Amino acid sequence: MAEEYWNASLETLPWAEVENWQAGRIAAMLSGLPARSSLYGRLLGHQELSLTGFADLARLPFTMKDDVRWAQDQADDLRPFGANQGAPLADIVQAVSSSGTTGKPMYYALTGADLEVWTDAIANAFFTAGVRKTDVIAHLVGLPMVAGGMPYADGFRRIGATLCWLGGFPTERILREMRRLRASALLATTSFGLHLTETWDAIGRETGVASSLRTVCLGGEPGLNEASIRERITDGLGITRLSEVMGLGDVVSCLWGECAAGNGMHFNAQKYVAIELIDPETGAILPWREGATGEIVYTTFEREATPLVRYRSRDHALVTATSCSCGRTSPRIRCIGRTDDMLIYKAMNVFPTAIRDLILQRFAGKVSPMLRIWKDRADQVRFDEAIPVDVEATAEVAPSAYPALAEEIGQFIRSQLQVRIAVNLLAPGSVPRGVYKTPLVVVRG
Ligand SMILES: [Zn+2]
Questions:
Q1: Separation of 411 CA from ligand 1 center, angstroms?
Q2: How far is the CA of 7 from the centre of ligand 1 (A)?
């Protein structure tokens, strides 16, 4: 079957040529930027802004999350989006909000032109992830204002799929409507995908409608790096396609999507956004090379309302490939963690996802993917005592074997990560399942 693309010419152009083309667009954007954004007046005011090639981008300073927060705190009546509002209010048509799970929500703005950019880029990512105009897609993000809400709905309609915006209804109703509407595709968080595997068959018996589900797009949380989780979802739902998607509300809310070849997400916003990979410690540029890990940095060169230059995403990625059987030329990645999520046990840095992924790999069949790591306070990063971890056993493990299994898990993590965890082994079904995000890290009280 011939490969289908959303934007064939750009998606199959050699990556060096994509960057070359982007350099011209970035140069044009930079020339007017300090005048329209006072944040960039501050950050770039004294910089030489001429760009002769993509590599020159590395001469410009990074934009940090704190810069963006500072800019937002400068909001006034004419500029509700603060010092990085790059367009007059009359041109702005939409405010997008971060989920606000880690502190005060951030706001991003879209002009009419920005909205068109977002819709096209989001459609591109979901097209790569397997969504087609013949699909009936269940959109399970319930909040219109968040990055995965209204903007995703726009993207699905741009593809021409039948949008069924079920997010926001109670879970039981969502599941019944998905059966009745013959939903063939689904967008949800990874934890909802897992939750669905536990109830999808029962809902089928209740409604008497066979499952039409084929394509499942999941994101918003890590988890799909783990083969046992992917298998559980694919087998549990009887689907032919499981695709991970990822975006950033500050940049474009869906930027990356997994093609049919799997093994990582392609970058799909090359028409509007440039990417760099850097060493998060030194800021040095890293080549896109299979096996490389680093932080992704984004530059929006078509953004009017809240533009970003060399924005540090704090997303750490593993480059899984730089070529693909599908013909797309953009790098493929898996997200391995966020700087924001990093924990420190004594002097060791550890991502909560690394703890989970190792446990699920080594103890597949004995434990469920529902793990919880406990913090005493939301801002706790350092642990001097063992990190408390709830692990749910499967029905295959006899309760009398829990203490030995808990001990074995603790020793295994210590040997792999040099980090001590205190495992609390729980009976099957003990960890509550959320309809939106089931957090891996939870705060006591
Ligand atoms: Zn591919």
A1: 38
A2: 14
Which domain does 145 fall in, by range? 1-338
User: What are the distances in angstroms from CA 109 to CA 79, 271, 309, 409?
Assistant: 11, 19, 16, 46
| Number of CB atoms found within 10 A of residue 316's CB | 21
Distance 233 CA to ligand 1 centre (A): 21
- Co-location of 306 and 346 in the same domain: no
10-residue mean pLDDT profile of the chain (445 residues): values are 87 98 96 94 85 94 94 94 96 90 83 98 98 97 93 98 95 93 95 87 93 94 79 92 95 97 96 96 95 96 97 94 96 86 82 86 87 87 91 93 95 91 92 70 84
Q: How far is CA 25 from the centre of its chain?
A: 26
CA of 296 to the centre of ligand 1 (A): 19
- Do 70 and 127 share a domain, yes or no? yes
Tally the domains of the chain.
2
Shared domain for 371 and 280, answered yes or no, is no
Final residue of a structural domain among 283, 304, 338: 338
